[in-house]
Amino acid sequence: MKLHEKTVAGAGDSSRFIAGEAPPVISNTHLPLLRISHSLHLKKENPFVNSNTQLKSLENTAAGAGDSTRFFAGEAPPVILNTHLPLLRKSHSFPLESEDFPVKNKKILEVLTFMESSDQLRRGEFRSKVKNFFSKNESFSCKVRFFMTWISSLNTFSEKEFHSIETLFSTHPKGCLLIVSNSMDSNKGRQILKPFSEKGFRVTAISPDLKYLFKNTMAEPWFMKLTKGDLDVGYVPLGQNLSNLLRLCLLYKFGGVYMDTDVMVLKSFSKLKNSIGAQTLDLGSKNWSRLNNAVMVFDKMHPLVYKFIEEFALTFNGNKWGHNGPYLVSRVVSRLENRPGYNFTILPPMAFYPVNWNRVRNLFRGAKNETDAKWLRGKLRQIRSQSYAVHLWNKQSRRLRIEEGSIVGKILSNHCVFCNSSLDSIVRIE
Which residues cross the membrane (predicted)? Predict the structure, then answer.
């Protein structure tokens, strides 16, 4: 695929974002693969997990890689279920006091309770904790700020999410990772992250303060309607839509890099600035046809991020899959990309999404014949030279096994922190 990049009004020369950075040095692409562990009950379904938008794909094979029907067979889109959230512990964090609170609104409360801490003493401390974590000190200075969110139980935190953090620190040893999560901000969550801290990496989890994060944005009145039960949340899991809003508000309040937990990092993000990635290109014009919000890089209080938040609040629809996520950023950028004053860059699909959701299984497969092997070699070369990260589309890939000789396996072998080890041998849950 010919690398294509568009810089939006006043963003300056963007060629440095792709062409100007050398690919990582790969010393050995055949290291033993990490075996998959089920020590954290990986088979348990998680009603809060962030699912990816079902989109038609656009994919070009790597130059000379040939065509393999096994690798390019289409997949049926995932079935969207009406999720029934489990009953969670009582909380008094939200002003929902009516004894006749409708059942639907009780389910809203359950999601909010799961996302935020019920400890009144911890509320109001979020801002100071975040600033203290990212602040410079004599021994450490964050070169790149990373944010992730985890709105699920820890029972669903698997080896794949752990590998994602490994690749982040493999490429950014002086980076800082803040995981905004109520479940991770716990003794068990700290034990999961402890192996990284013991190696000197800067990582922590902090429970979100949604009221603070939404304050003074259009998310604030939207959230008020939600907590009063005046909002139709629809059938798309509320946790997913809150995750879409939470990532935007984190970037707006603090600035940095937001990444989903199913992203493998291949190169330094230090030269990226105010950037969002295209997921697909138009076959005819070669212009972007859809953007995605799984990886975003923005300065604090960036006007485009404010517009994203505004769009979320004004056009929220809980009955359309992806409406408040990838489709949202696509709608806003399509209106603003030619207007002055926004200064952002649209990166090509290869930057973060080298394969689309319905072909992600190709990254997990080893070669069965020479045609497969040729495609794998070509695609791996393409990813190493052109991609900053690889989104693994967890909704479609979470049950896939990493086969020997696969692209995912080779990337993990070259960007591991705990090489040749399984999760249960690294993390000790007491």
Answer: none
Cβ(258)–Cβ(296) below 8 Å: yes
For 6-26+107-119+140-426, CATH number? 3.90.550
3-class DSSP state for residue 171?
helix
Could you tell me which residues come within 8 angstroms of residue 62 by beta carbon, excluding any fewer than 6 positions away? 1, 375, 378, 379, 381, 382
Rounded to the nearest 5°, which phi and psi values hold at 205? -125, 135
Two tokens, residue 330: 């696509």
| DSSP bridge pairs for 204 | 178
The 3-state DSSP composition of the chain as helix, strand, coil percent (nearest 5) reads: 35, 10, 55
Domain residue ranges in the chain:
6-26+107-119+140-426
Residue 157: partners with Cβ closer than 8 Å, 6 or more residues away: 40, 150, 184, 192
- Rounded mean pLDDT, 28-41: 38
Outline where DSSP puts E strands in 120-165.
Answer: 145-149
Cα–Cα distances (Å) from 346 to 10, 76, 88, 161, 276, in that order, read 13, 29, 40, 26, 5
Q: Are 383 and 354 in contact (CB under 8 A)?
A: yes
Q: What confidence tens digit (pLDDT) does each residue in 131-167 have?
A: 999 987 656 789 999 999 999 999 999 999 999 999 9
Residues 10 and 275: their CA atoms lie apart, in Å, by: 13
* β-sheet bridge partners, residue 178: 147, 204
- Widest CA span in the chain: 67
Q: Are 388 and 19 in contact (CB under 8 A)?
A: no
- The confidence score (pLDDT) of residue 137 equals 67
Which residues, 6+ apart, have CB-to-CB distance to 327 below 8 Å?
A: 53, 290, 320
The model carries a pTM of: 0.76
| Count, residues in the chain | 430
Q: Would you state the structure tokens that stand for residue 144, as one six-digit string?
A: 């790149």
Q: Which percentage of the chain shows pLDDT scores above 70? A: 72
Burial-class residue 299 by CB neighbours within 10 Å (0-12, 13-18, 19+).
middle
pLDDT tens digits, one per residue of 205-233: 999 999 999 999 999 999 999 988 899 99
Per-residue tokens: 179: 């995981």
Residues 6+ apart with CB under 8 A from 186: 154, 205
Contact criterion met (CB below 8 Å) for 15 and 403: no
